[in-house]
Write a structure and sequence with these properties.
The chain is of the alpha/beta class. Helix content is 47%, strand content 14%.
């Protein structure tokens, strides 16, 4: 690991160091992935650590290539004291809106942990009914090592779930776009209609015709 990368990772642990210095022992990072897609669940992860994660390349999952995310996911799981996943289904997203469903998924991840953390760092939002002290951090997945770790595990597991859905619901291209509103996905929606895992309250899924979104792409 280069000296520059080590310095970056030290900066990425600023919130963690503050919590540890204040007396926390088990620190938890929480993040979710999948707010934007037209299909599939929103998936949250809670990762508990007791020491820094000096893993080369650790960062917000959105800026990492898939191969690097997979390798980091394995390394994080090996070093973490505990981790747990929480999901909110497409139906729950439709019933309660994506923000509330995201918080629900985060709460489910926290409640599924095998240990109780002393302090929780969470990306952007306040988690209702969280029994631990928590600190929401705007853009936390880019500023906190623990939150970045949670975002990586959540992203890897959600992507794997969407890969399985590609076989269950062929023709939509879920393995390629993971449910996001690509031109390929919109064309498949126009051709096939929504699948059981589509979010029916999202405007592109509701649209009777997708021509205006496809910029003239052939169906």
């Amino acid at each position: 690991m280069t000296a520059k990368e080590r310095r970056r990772l030290q900066r990425l642990h600023a919130y963690e160091r503050q919590a540890w210095d204040a007396g926390a022992r088990l620190l938890c990072g929480v993040d979710e992935v999948g707010r934007g897609p037209l299909a599939g669940p929103v998936v949250a992860c809670a990762v508990v650590i007791r020491e820094p994660l000096y893993l080369e390349g650790l960062n917000d999952s959105k800026v990492l290539p898939a191969v690097r995310r997979e390798a980091l996911c394995d390394a994080i799981r090996a070093q973490a004291v505990a981790y747990a996943l929480g999901w909110a289904t497409p139906g729950e997203i439709d019933r309660m809106n994506i923000l509330t469903a995201s918080k629900l998924a985060m709460g489910r991840a926290l409640s599924s942990l095998a240990v109780t953390p002393d302090y929780v760092l969470v990306d952007a939002v306040h988690i209702p009914e969280c029994a631990c002290p928590q600190e929401p951090i705007t853009d936390g997945d880019a500023k906190s090592a623990a939150i970045a770790a949670a975002s990586i595990i959540a992203k890897v597991f959600r992507d794997r779930w969407m890969d399985q859905c590609d076989a269950l619901y062929p023709g939509y291209g879920f393995a390629q776009h993971k449910g996001y509103a690509t031109a390929e996905h919109l064309a498949a929606l126009a051709r096939l209609g929504p699948s059981p895992i589509h979010r029916r309250t999202y405007a592109p899924v509701q649209a009777p015709s997708f021509d205006f979104l496809l910029d003239g792409a052939a169906l």
